[in-house]
Amino acid sequence: MDKRAFIKKASLVTVLASFGLTLESCSSDDEPTPGNTSKTTIDLNTSPFSSLKSPGGWVLHPTQKILLVNVGGTISAFSSVCTHEGCSTDWSFSGEFLCGCHGSRFDTSGNVTNGPASRPLSRISVTRDGDTLTLG
């Protein structure tokens, strides 16, 4: 990288930091996604995951980019990386997932119900053994 390119990138990072913003990758090698072999185990008796024991309960995983929801007793998991522009931490749920960055909505199967996103959320496999979930 030449000096000019370095100064441009350093300036951009400085400006973003002054507004409290960061550059965030759209994916991570350690998040369980289709095709990734890493596994995540969740105990439904611990907070915040205990809300998943009840139908309608949902969680944005606190350390991984994963949305979880209980629909009629079946727990589903999806990547929380929005397919519009990659936002991953600003989510709410009221019968469907709402990405707070640009307003995209997704149903409990991960399908887009309202854009600007045009692709569904990536599904993550879930195996349940009692109160233990294995994702990935």
Provide an overview of this structure.
- The protein has one domain: Rieske Iron-sulfur Protein (3-layer Sandwich).
- Helices cover 12% and strands 29% of the residues.
- The protein is built from one helix and eleven strands.
- The strands form three sheets. It has a four-stranded antiparallel sheet, with no helix packed on it. The protein has a four-stranded antiparallel sheet with strand order 5-6-7-8, with no helix packed on it. A three-stranded antiparallel sheet has the order 1-11-10, with no helix packed on it.
- The relative contact order is 0.17.
- About 12% of the residues have low confidence.
Which key phrases capture this entry?
136 residues; alpha+beta; Rieske Iron-sulfur Protein; 4-stranded antiparallel sheet; 1 helix; 11 strands; iron-sulfur; Ubiquinol-cytochrome c reductase iron-sulfur subunit
Quick structural overview:
Helices cover 12% and strands 29% of the residues. It is of the alpha+beta class and 136 residues long. It has a single domain (26-135), classed as Rieske [2Fe-2S] iron-sulphur domain (Rieske Iron-sulfur Protein), CATH 2.102.10.
Total of helices: 1
Give the spatial strand order of the biggest sheet: 2-3-4-9
What is the mean predicted local confidence, pLDDT?
77
CA gyration radius, whole angstroms: 17 Å
Shape: globular
One letter per element, helices H and strands E, the order comes to HEEEEEEEEEEE
For the record, the CATH architecture stands as 3-layer Sandwich
Derived from helix and strand composition plus strand pairing, the structural class reads alpha+beta
Can you tell me the CATH topology? Rieske Iron-sulfur Protein
- Report the portion of residues in β strands: 25-35%
Cα distance, first to last residue? 38 Å
| Total beta strand runs | 11
Largest sheet: 4 strands, antiparallel
By CATH reckoning, the class would read Mainly Beta
Indicate the low-confidence ranges by residue numbers.
21-37
